[in-house]
Design brief:
The protein is mainly β and 73 residues long. The chain is built from one helix and five strands.
């Protein structure tokens, strides 16, 4: 199944404010995002900052214990 929306990670603060990362999360897989996918230079982003997975058209996000947290919407 294809998601009915196009999820995007938007950078709201830090060195890459205004940047974005399109998210493609296949059913049954977990995508982990961190500094290497978003910004190597921004030390506020953890190496493995968030995990994303989907079930049907629902996208789930879990902070991976980052010291700066994860904020949605």
């Amino acid at each position: 199944p294809v998601l009915q929306f196009n999820p995007v990670l938007s950078v709201l603060s830090g060195e890459n404010v205004g940047g974005s990362v399109p998210l493609s999360v296949p059913e049954g897989e977990t995508l982990t995002l961190g500094r290497s996918q978003i910004s190597e230079e921004d030390l506020t982003i953890g190496r493995e900052h968030i995990a994303l997975w989907r079930r049907g058209d629902a996208l789930f996000v879990r902070d991976q214990g980052s010291k700066n947290g994860t904020f949605l919407n």
